[in-house]
Amino acid sequence: MTIFRKHGYTEAGLKLCSYHRCPVIKVEPNAESVCVYEWLIQKALHHKIVDFIPREPDDDEEVIGLPAFVLDNQFLLPSLFINIRPSSSFVHIQEKIATNQVECKQIVFIPQTKSMGKMFCDFYLEDEFVFQIDVSLEVLLFLLESDETQKYAGDEHVKS
Q: Fewer Cβ in 10 A, N or C end of the chain?
């Protein structure tokens, strides 16, 4: 089960990248701050899904039960929403994920005036669009700040 605690991140409490208008955060204490969008490109773009963690509902208002994807580099990608084509089904999507060939081929960040913005990752099986996820920036920022996540962050960092 994927359990993430709510942390109340808001744009007002974060420094923003001057180029993308995306949150900028330190991945580790002595590192330079990184643009979350550039960091996500480094960690997720051209990587394949090796596991899917389904959403687990929870009655606790402080808990976010989100689906998440584990990529071939062990990066955990939390999702708010999974967008699939009307002609497809989630069972069909799971079958494609099971091939370990579904790859993140595009990441888009859309700045917003009243929130942190929206980030989307598009996944393909070869040249066929499979689905798009709405990335949870709140959870992604928590993962970036967490000491536990250094295993996902690796040694390389994008400098902004």
A: N
Whole-angstrom Cα distance, residue 25 to residue 39?
Answer: 10
Domain containing 48 equals 4-153
User: In this structure, how many other beta carbons lie within 10 angstroms of the beta carbon of residue 105?
Assistant: 15
pLDDT digits (tens, 9 = 90+) for 141-155: 776 665 434 444 444
In a domain, 159, yes or no: no
Ranges assigned E (strand) in the chain:
4-5, 15-16, 23-26, 33-35, 49-53, 63-64, 68-71, 76-84, 102-110, 118-125, 128-135
pLDDT tens string 66-89: 678 899 999 888 887 788 877 777
Neighbours of 71 (CB within 10 A): 22
| Residue 54 DSSP class | -
**Number of domains composing the chain:** 1
Among 67, 86, 72, residue whose Cα is nearest residue 134: 67
